[in-house]
Design goal:
A six-stranded mixed β-sheet has the order 1-4-3-5-2-6, sandwiched between helices. It starts with 6 loop residues before the first helix and ends in a 13-residue tail after the last helix. Helix 5 packs across helix 6. By secondary structure, the protein is of the alpha/beta class. The protein has a single domain, classed as Lysozyme-like, CATH 3.40.80. Keywords: Cell wall biogenesis/degradation, Hydrolase. This is N-acetylmuramoyl-L-alanine amidase. Pfam families: Amidase_2. InterPro entries: Amidase/PGRP_sf, Amidase_domain, NAMLAA_amidase_2.
């Protein structure tokens, strides 16, 4: 026997559809190149850097990492991720693998959110933690292009969106990644492969954390 939808039930159905519509239209899909070569390089990176032999390119997200690109424009930032292989001028990063850097999301200065990679595919954006981390890059971060209020709002929205979708345990800024050395999530095998980071800035991180504290993310490992 078919159940009748009550007025209250219809209202909730409409509200749910509205929420789904807002979430699906707020993200603009703009995929970077992910061809057979990038898939092979991703698998090679996971094997060489993390010792994950015969692993797939897929991840189970447990962490969100916020970044800035230090590139002033959307197109320049997108182009930095689009190529499959790392550019030759990035010597140190290139020595750690031919796979180009990438991120799952790119937030423009007007707050527009672009999805560059499927959320469960590994991107190369944070040493030691790529196998479990979703990356959010923000266009800018230079002296002339500081991160904007629109980007802040979009980062907060994205953290909420992703935390509702996945079992996210940690929210970190890129500059905090080395705190995880020795942690169970840390898989980088080379103790010499580290880069100093400042992104996305302590004030930006503090504001995002305050706005998303309802998720009760785990505290960061204490620095020795």
């Amino acid at each position: 026997m078919r159940k009748e939808i009550t007025g209250k039930g219809l209202l909730w159905l409409c509200f749910s559809l509205l929420l789904w519509s807002c979430a699906s239209t707020r993200i603009v899909d703009r995929p970077i190149v992910f061809d057979a070569q990038r898939e092979q390089l991703t698998q090679a990176y996971m094997a060489e850097r993390y010792g994950l032999k015969d692993s797939s390119i897929y991840i189970t997200p447990r962490m969100i990492v916020l970044h800035w690109t230090a590139i002033p424009t959307l197109e320049g930032s997108f182009d930095a991720f689009d190529d499959t292989t790392i550019p030759q001028w990035r010597t140190m990063v290139g020595e750690a693998g031919k796979l180009n850097v990438s991120s799952h999301f790119l937030v423009d200065r007007d707050g527009t959110v672009y999805r560059l990679l499927p959320e469960t595919v590994m991107g190369r954006h944070v040493i030691g933690l790529n196998h479990c981390a979703l990356g959010i890059e923000n266009v800018g971060g230079t002296a002339d292009t500081p991160l904007t209020e629109a980007q802040l709002r979009s980062n907060i929205w994205l953290v909420n969106y992703l935390s509702n979708k996945y079992d996210i345990e940690y929210l970190i800024g890129h500059y905090e990644y080395t705190l995880f050395e020795g942690h169970e999530l840390w898989l980088e095998k080379d103790p010499a492969y580290r880069t100093e980071k400042e992104d996305p800035g302590q004030e930006f991180m503090a504001r995002v954390r305050k706005a998303t504290r309802k998720w009760n993310f785990k505290p960061l490992p204490e620095q020795e």
